[in-house]
Amino acid sequence: MTPSVLILSATLAALVAAAPSKPNIVLIYADDLGYGDLSCNGATALQTPHSDRLAKEGLNFSSGYSAATTCTPSRYSMLTGEYAFRQKGTGILPGDANLIIEPGRATLASALKGAGYKTGVVGKWHLGLGAGVIDWNGEIKPGPNEVGFDESFIMAATGDRVPCVFLRNHGIENLDPADPIQVSYKNPFPGEADGVRDRGSLKMDWSHGHNQAVINGVGRIGYMTGGSKARWTDETMAETFAKEAVSFIERSKDQAFFLYFATHGVHVPRIVNPRFAGKTPMGPRGDAIAEFDWQVGQVLDAIDRLGLADETLVILTSDNGPVLDDGYKDQAVEKLGSHKPAGPFRGGKSSIHEGGSRVPLLARWPGRVKPGGTSGAIISQVDFPATFATLAGASFPKDRAPDTRNVLPALLGESPTGREHVLQYSGIVAVRAGDWKLIPTKAAKGAKKAKLEFQLYNLAKDPGETTDVVAENPEKAAALRKLLASGTDSPPTGG
Fold this sequence. Notes:
Layout lengths: L2 H16 L5 E7 L18 H9 L1 E3 L2 E2 L5 H10 L27 H7 L3 E7 L26 E5 L10 E3 L2 E2 L9 E3 L29 E2 L2 E2 L3 E3 L8 H19 L4 E6 L20 H23 L6 E7 L35 H4 L3 E4 L8 E3 L3 E2 L3 H8 L16 H4 L9 E5 L3 E5 L2 E8 L8 E7 L15 H16 L6
Parallel strand pairs: 1-12, 1-13, 2-15, 3-16, 4-5, 4-12
Antiparallel strand pairs: 2-14, 5-6, 6-7, 8-11, 9-10, 13-14, 17-18, 18-19, 19-20
Helix pairs in contact: 4-8, 5-6
């Protein structure tokens, strides 16, 4: 071989090595899982070995944020790249709500699909379905398949809301036409069990709400009749979703794929498979965390078995912070013990404090992400569209996605910094910039005009937000007030 050929070969090899990879992307999206619910983040009352494996083999972020402190707005923001507070109708949806992401709009899924990825969603959807009155016995669209997903196997909303069925693409799985489904969030159906009247027969009692339709011996929100063969069983739900997730990976292994695996765990009702019951000292909530961790293991095992680990980025995170009593008497409070679901942070689901939206965030990509590392980089789930699109060699349109930022260097551990600031949403909007966080509170008492008061916390010194230091730091508070106003009054242009 001549020297010139050797030089050319070496140059080509270098170019191939430097070429950007297009990895598979698996996003494991837990429900109501707190930062402190994983043993890799300090939990000792229970162990989460499969999630811990992700941290050991990848990167564990201490400042990963959901884009809101409740489910629907977090999911909306994560898929669209737009904070949910910018759009009306993005609050927590009932089970019969219409799709709130308009078909044709750029989403995380559509961007990856456009880049050549096969895209699939398995699990909890909770972003609405259809347009107008939904006929649950016919073709149900638009839905996930109209906003970028090639395949979908989902529940419409949550486990505590009707309809209690699975949908595959545009129709209900296992529906018997002779037993049509009806759903109502206003009126009960005659002859059906009722959570108040039949309370004594429930397998899990309710503490508040969750006392309308009774499905699988559990009171739900809303009313439903029909569809007996199509109804899910809570005890096998995690297994069903895990099998569907693994099946998608197996069928997609010969091309780049994106799987959005939105587990139902650890949302209520926390009714696990019998093999997980009693696995932790924390009752059903702890057992649900163990079951969720098992689902993580099923996905990782499939990736390894198929030889896909080195070409697959796996992300684990949660839609919001933790909640204990969320409507059922499942001893989540009584059996909590010393466990701290939000870790060192204050608050939880629905709270504007850190525990509401600072959530687990783990990233593994062998050969690209150094194993066993930790990062304090600020990353929000609203950044996933721009970040994953960049990873796929695509771009994400900015005209309808004003908030998403490309934080790929931080996500891969190549940079110690991510966002300069992040907005946190829980009915009100707070801002964190660096070590500082500003929270608007209720109007000052006695003021002639409504005037917001503010709280200021130094998260580096006070991660639990116990000491308001706004009075001692007026200049910092003023700067953050200006930053908050620029971020909420109009689409931001930086940061």
